[in-house]
Every structure is written in C-alpha cells, then in structure tokens.
Amino acid sequence: MQWTPISKQAGTELAACNMPDYEHARARFTWDAARAALDGLPDGRGLNIAHEAVDRHAAGPRAGRPAIRWIARSGEVRDISYAELRRLTDRFAGALAGLGLARGDRVFALAGRVPELYVAVLGALKAGGVFCPLFSAFGPEPIRSRMTLGSAKVLVTTTALYRRKVEKMRAELPELRHVILIDGDGSLPDTLGFGVLMAAATDDFTIAPTDPEDMALLHFTSGTTGRPKGAIHVHGAVVAHHATARLALDLRPDDMFWCTADPGWVTGTSYGIIGPLSVGATLLVDEAEFDAERWYRTLQDQKVTVWYTAPTAIRMMMKLGIEPIRAFDTASLRFLASVGEPLNPEAVVWGREAFGRPFHDNWWQTETGGIMIANYAAMDIRPGSMGKPLPGIEAAIVEHRDDGSVAVIEEPDREGELALRPGWPSMFRGYLNEEERYAKCFADGWYLSGDLARRDADGYFWFVGRADDVIKSAGHLIGPFEVESALLEHPAVAEAGVIGKPDPVAMEIVKAFVALKPGFEAGEALRRELLGHCRKRLGAAVAPREIDFLDDLPRTRSGKIMRRLLKARELGLPEGDTSTLESGT
Ligand code: ATP
Ligand code: MG
Q1: What's the pLDDT at 288?
Q2: pLDDT at 493
Q3: pLDDT, position 45
Q4: 347-368 burial by CB neighbour count: b if 16+ within 10 A, else e?
Q5: Which value, in Å, is the radius of gyration of the alpha carbons in the chain?
Q6: 513: CA distance to ligand 1 center in Å?
Q7: Each residue of 408-441: b (16+ CB within 10 Å) or e?
Q8: Which ligand lies nearest to the CA atom of residue 229 in the structure?
Q9: Ligand 1 neighbours (beta carbon < 6 A)
Q10: Which ligand is nearest to the CA of 228?
Q11: How confident is the model at residue 584, as a pLDDT?
Q12: For residue 461, how far is its CA from the centre of ligand 1 (angstroms)?
C-alpha cells in the first residue's frame, strides 16, 4: 500500500509560517544570519545560552509573559514569567558562584519536571557551568558512572532521590562537592537546601563571560545500540536551537509549546527548555507521566498550539483509539511534531484524524544537538519520510569503500549511511574522554550518523534502520522499520520490534516481536494472520518468518525500542549495557 502525500494547500495560514517556502529559505540561509537573530552577551562578552533563553526577553516587552507554565502532578498550575525566571536564575547562578563553582565545572541534575530543575539548568549556564541532565528514574549505577565520567561538582536533586540513589555512594564520588536538595533545608548531612541558597542570594547576577565555543551541556546518548556516550555541546549551540525551533517546529513568541520529552535526555533540554525559550514562547511543563486523558485535557485547557512528542507516546494513544479524544477540544493545535524513533506512516495520518493535524516527523541525535531533517509546516508530507534537511544543513547518503573512505551516493532511492557535513553550531564537539569513538564518526569531511537511510528523487529522506540493526537475509538488506511499519498497519498491533536472527541458509531471517492492542488475543491464528498480512504487504523475502508475542517491548528511558536486547534475549547472549533500560521491560 502506498501512502498518499499530505498536501499543504497554499493559504493564509501557510503564508504565516516561519518558513513559507522551503527552497527559498534554504537558498538564503546562513548560520551568520541565524547568529545575528540572537543578542549575544552585553558588552561583547560572548554568547550564553541562558541570556538568549531568558534575559533578553526579560529585558523587553515580553518580560511579563509566562516563560514556563508548570502543571503540578496535582493539577495545580503555576506561571513563571520571563522576568521572574530571570530573577530566579540570577539567584541560583549567584548561589553557585558563592559555592565556588568555576567556569566549566559540571552541574548535574537528577529530578523530575519541577520548576527548580529549569531554574537550575539556566542558573548553572549563567554561572559559566556545564549542565548535565540525568533521568530521575536511573538506578544508582548509571548515576554513579555518569557523574564520575562527567566529573560532577554539583548535583541538584530531591531528598527522596538523594536518599534512595546517591547517599550511600557519596564516598565513591570524591569530586562531588555540593548536593543541593530542591526540597531540602540543609539539615541532611552534606547537603544544601535549594530554598536556603536562593534566599541568601541576590536578584542580580552578571552572567559569566562565555565564548560560543565554551562547553555548556553534556548529554549522554540513549544507549540504544550500546554503552552510552557523553556528547559535549557548547554555548554556540543556542544558534541552532533557536533557528530550528523557528524553522522546524514553526515556533513563534505567542505559542503555547508542549514538549513531552523527559528532561533526562537531549530533546528535553534542546526543545524542552532552550529552543522555545530562545524564541520567547511559553513552555508548558507537566510534572506527571503519560496519561492519555490527562494529555488531551492539557491540550484543551492550556490551548497548546505546538506539540512535540514521540512515536511511543503516539502509538500508546493510537492503542486507545480516537473515541476518547472526541470529548476534548484540541482545535488550538497548529503544529504537531515527533522525534526519537521512526514514525510509521499510519501514525502520521492518524494525527490528522485524531487532532485535525498530521504529525510531522523529524530526525536528529544527541550528537547533532538539534533537528537536522524535518517535515515542515508549509511542505507536503510524505508519510513515513523524515522530511528534508534544515536550511544550513547538508545531508547525504554515503557508502563505505573498502579502503575506509566514503563516497556520496548521488542516485536516488539507494540505501546507505546518513551523513551530515560538519559545521552547524549545535554539532557535538566530542565524546567525553572517548576520542577514538569520536574520531570514528568522521570520514572524508562527513559526520557519519550510524543510521541508514535513502533519499528519493525529490530530496525527501527515508529512515531504513540503525546500521547495527539492519538485517541481511538471502542477499537482501532489510530495514527493521519497513517491517515494523507493515506490522503496525494491522489493527491488532500496538508495537513491533524486528531483528535479524542468524540462520545457516539465509544468513539471517527476519523475526518480529509484537505487542497487541487491548482486545486482541495472542495465538497461532493471529500469528498466521500477521505473517500473511506482512507477506502480502512486503513480499516473502522481506516479511518476517517468525513472530513472537510480548506484553511490552524493551525500551530505553527515552522511549526507543532496544532491538539489540530483543536479539540478545532471543539468542541467549549477554544483554550488555542496560543502564538506560526502562524498568519492567
Ligand atoms: P546510542 O547512540 O547510545 O545507541 P541513541 O542513538 O538511541 O543511543 P539518541 O541520540 O537519543 O541516542 O537517539 C538518536 C537516534 O534516534 C538516531 O540516530 C535515530 O536512530 C533515532 N531517531 C531519532 N529520530 C528519528 C526519526 N525521526 N526517525 C528515525 N529514527 C530516529
Ligand atoms: Mg546514537
């Protein structure tokens, strides 16, 4: 089945987009001009993410507008204006400076979506520190190893998380000087109270001079393919966060923007904090975890205009069907986007049925720091495609030659590795303490993403799979995404993960793991039906030969299916690094 493109008819709404004409914008775009759209620190003292995200709005007519609208788990709503966010982050920066935080020192956070977390991130950046987020659901070992590798000097967390996960191993973290407890008062030994520090600090802090090339953020990758890497990002990255928030997410200053990503991974920082604030929009933050009905109510009550979420969440909503959405008015939504995993074509189209707007898939990685390839507000969507490269980004499909060099594949529709021409501002500057791993990402002037893709004749990019996950079967190269998408078209299938299982004849056979929607029963009849459906849809060479039913698929905390774990379990091999595995899977 071919998915019909979703055409964007020309009209006043499209003319109002930040990028009404992709080709035109691409031809004119320069990173220098993107940089000129930001302020820079006063008196030429450099560039600082927190200044662009907060202070420049607090100093202007937007000062009283909400920067953050926070919804507590209880449902209580609290607005923090740009002016207030400026004061709070100044105070926290002053408190850190008072504790002796030096330029480049690492400030880690282990906390859920509470206002203090946002104050801590931006305050740390103002103080010249480097911020590193951790998932609050991490166990002690992933916390210890990341803080050790990242030389954490300060940790911002809550009393409960500290007691459960950090207190006992404090002696193993000799570099960790201060633990600041969001809800603490300093009475717990070797800790400081967030409120106490804030009360003792002053409202005015002069942002530390920071060079655009100064390290600002440390982000660990999701660990989908192996041991997570610590990607280094600099203050200059804000130029890309700002430009991509405008061009790829179509964000404007009066938007109510909701990014559902956890602050523990890169999306939660680049687009859960920096991008939207740099544009001057309002950031909606919900403390609670996924709950379909709560989400629909939030979209309605907060009049969300731009919504950035992930395939896992979309598929969870699809599993529950459209009916529950009908009880809510989500007409305020203008733009829906998705990232993190391939978005199957059906989910793109479902967005339009459910919310009146299609989901716009976009592609990027921890390493790229910001969106690189996207479906744009004013551009036709080809469901299943990641879209086209951002203005300012040169992307190509390359093949590896035997001598270690790479060559660009010019002809359309051929699979190869997705590569980007280095030089955009949010590009990572290294993997912390892993120079060799970093060096391996480059060849012949290209950054190699580790993902396989193809580009069609019109310049749309299509995700095939991670290089590690691609299946070689009887002379065919099979991308798991294609098979998973076909499975997801079947009404019984909620989630699918596909691997290559070693086979003496075919080299590998395609094996699928499937989780079902409510109301469907696993069994031989359904297995046969799914096999038949895939054969019809994909042909016998690509369709799975085996299908297993699981209650749930193993996923990273950022919501990605861990195919390597499905494979290790299937083959009875060691599971490898599971530090980012979502518990219970
Ligand atoms: P690790 O590098 O540790 O294995 P990871 O690659 O999952 O983990 P992230 O940087 O969080 O860590 O994820 C980036 C990856 O997610 C991309 O390289 C790609 O494989 C996948 N991805 C992100 N967005 C999309 C998308 N729109 N379509 C397909 N895949 C995507
Ligand atoms: Mg990766």
Answers
A1: 97
A2: 97
A3: 94
A4: bbbbbeebbebbbbbbbbbbbb
A5: 23
A6: 20
A7: ebeeeeebbbbbbeeebbbbbebbbeeeeebeeb
A8: 1
A9: 221-226, 228, 265, 339-342, 361-363, 365-366, 386, 449, 451, 463, 466, 558, 560
A10: 1
A11: 61
A12: 15
How far does the centroid of ligand 2 lie from the alpha carbon of residue 229, in Å? 8
In sequence order, which residues have a C-beta less than 8 Å from that of residue 105 and are 6 or more positions away?
128, 129, 130, 153, 154
Q: Which residues of the chain have pLDDT under 50?
A: none
* Packed helices 311-320 and 345-355: angle between N→C axes, nearest 10 degrees: 60
Chain centroid to CA 500: how far? 27
pTM of the model: 0.95
Task: Give the chain's domains with CATH numbers.
Answer: 11-452 (3.40.50.12780), 471-571 (3.30.300.30)
Q: In this structure, how many other beta carbons lie within 10 angstroms of the beta carbon of residue 70? A: 19
pLDDT tens-digit series, residues 89-140:
999 999 999 999 999 999 999 999 999 999 999 999 999 999 999 999 898 9
**What's the pLDDT tens digit per position in 548-582?**
999 999 999 988 999 999 999 999 999 999 989 98
How far is ligand 2, taken at its centre, from the CA of residue 379, in Å?
27
Mutating to test ligand 1, I would choose from 145, 221, 229, 555 the residue with most ligand atoms within 8 A of its C-beta, which is 221
Residue with token string 């989910």: 347
